[in-house]
Each structure stands twice: as structure tokens, then as C-alpha cells.
């Protein structure tokens, strides 16, 4: 099973547990980029000590070892040549990093490393630039000066292989749940054959739980799956195994019609620390391969997706904020404004060459 897909559905299950909701049915949109969060976990993995700490990250990402985690992450390196459609960028900010960690994330994850005290303004500007200004203000406050910020940004933009006809888009009703009145939406319509030139239909799958139609993008490496649960079936019941069943069972070029709303959905900034801890991340683990005394403080994520007749634009950013696990000694403050001693020492023999007691310092 694809580790990113397994992670994606496990994370969705965690996020669906909303103890703050006052209703029995949550109508809030959820948008996440498992790719972005996966990449952030990969950065952290290179700083995790072998044992429980690294095993926790491997459990979260559904990978068997660091090599597999790195291999999956490298599939989406900017060097793949898909930068015009999909961009995934990694970065780390900290002035307490181990040199070996810096070398690892640079060479294996193509990460930018900034050996400086992390600030929200610098990080937010980097994220906004990498996401074509879709993700703003990922951080609301400065990270700890003696910590580290592990950040990923993902940006995707592609047109449909064949655009939806805007003249077909009509206002219609969309039923959010049985307890609420329907809302008005702009419903896009595509009639098969979808590609009039090639006289082809949709790639399509259906069973008693779901209908799935595939809409291709102009770039052949990407497509969109639109999955409509059957009446009475919750989206929360779907798993990564179901996703594999859908994609493996697609019937090609099936004649039919597809309608779904154009939309823009935003999610976050969402603190996912509890969800990741439930999935296996060890917050107070040994991250000494990254830097001295570091622990996981929080995992933050923000995502947005826009879908219309022309195509899709989406972006996400993830940040793992590393704190110091142990109290850091405050810097000393020494002002010799009273009598003091001054000693000249020969370091190889630790011998005093001159010694003075200064009670009246005059020049």
C-alpha cells in the first residue's frame, strides 16, 4: 500500500474526531495535504534517534525504515520536472542544528537550511512565496529562539484536459445534511464523451458504497477523483484500502455524465499535534541527531483548494516546531563595577603568569 495514502486516511480519521462540535454532524470542510505533512515528517526523521523516536515517525508515515521514508519523499522532489504543475519545497530554520542533520536533509530531501534564529515573518514570507500567495500567516508567533522550525510548502496548479463549459454551470441546491436546509451552489456539468475529439468517456468505478469518476488534468501525471458516497454511507468510513479498490477497479471510457460544484475550501491553521501523537509521534522523544535538547512542540498545517471550470489550484504548508526539551541556562551577565581579580594564565600548563587584585582601576 502507498504509505502516503495510508497516512492520509489515518489522519482523516483522527481529524474527524471533533470533541468540540456541538452537533452530531460536522459540516466543516476538511482539506489537508498528506504530501506536505509527510515531507515534514521526513525532515524530522533525520533528526530522530533510532529506537522509539524514529519508530514513532515510521508508524505515522506507514514506512518500514528511514530509507523507504526518504524514497517516497524524493518522488516529489523538485527535480522530478513537475515544478510547473506541482512544487514541494522543504526548509529548516535553526541555529542549533547538528552538521550531520544539515547534510542529510540537504542531500536527501533537497531542503533549504537557514542557520539563523527562526522568526514568523521570515518563515511566513517563504511559505507565501512558495505557495503563490495562497498560504499566508502560517505562524502567528515567533518560534523559540533556541528551537527549530521544520517547514514544507506544496503548490499545485493544473487545468482540466478539457474545460467544463461555463455555460453549463447552473445554480442548484446542495444538501449538507438532513438537519439543515440545502445551500445554493454553482454546479458544473460535464457530459460524456468528456473528450469530444477522442470520443472517450470517464474512467469510472462504482459499488454499493460509492461512485467514483476521474477527471483528467492537462498534465498526464495528474487527475482528480470525485467520490460520491451512496445515501447513508459516511465519508469517514472510507480507508486507504477502499482507495486502492477504486483505482484498481476503474472502468475506462465509461459513458455517463458528471456534475459537481465549483468550490473553494480552506482549512487551518490547524494544530495537529494531538492527532499526530495519537498516530504514534513521540513528542518528548530523542531528537538529538537534529540538535541538542530538542523535542516536538507542535505540528501545524494550513491548506486551501480552488476548483472551477478551468481546473484546480491548491496549496498547503506544514510546520513542525521543535522546542528545547531541557531548560536552557540564561546567558550570564557580568559587570565588574566593584573590585575584581585579573589573571594572565599560561593555558598549556595552567600556570598563573600575572595576578592582580584591582580595587581602583585607573588608566
UniProtKB/TrEMBL annotation:
<dbReference type="Pfam" id="PF00079">
    <property type="entry name" value="Serpin"/>
</dbReference>
<dbReference type="GO" id="GO:0004867">
    <property type="term" value="F:serine-type endopeptidase inhibitor activity"/>
</dbReference>
<dbReference type="InterPro" id="IPR023796">
    <property type="entry name" value="Serpin_dom"/>
</dbReference>
<dbReference type="GO" id="GO:0005615">
    <property type="term" value="C:extracellular space"/>
</dbReference>
<dbReference type="InterPro" id="IPR000215">
    <property type="entry name" value="Serpin_fam"/>
</dbReference>
<dbReference type="InterPro" id="IPR042185">
    <property type="entry name" value="Serpin_sf_2"/>
</dbReference>
<dbReference type="InterPro" id="IPR042178">
    <property type="entry name" value="Serpin_sf_1"/>
</dbReference>
<comment type="similarity">
    <text>Belongs to the serpin family.</text>
</comment>
<dbReference type="InterPro" id="IPR036186">
    <property type="entry name" value="Serpin_sf"/>
</dbReference>
<protein>
    <recommendedName>
        <fullName>Serpin domain-containing protein</fullName>
    </recommendedName>
</protein>
<feature type="domain" description="Serpin">
    <location>
        <begin position="9"/>
        <end position="361"/>
    </location>
</feature>
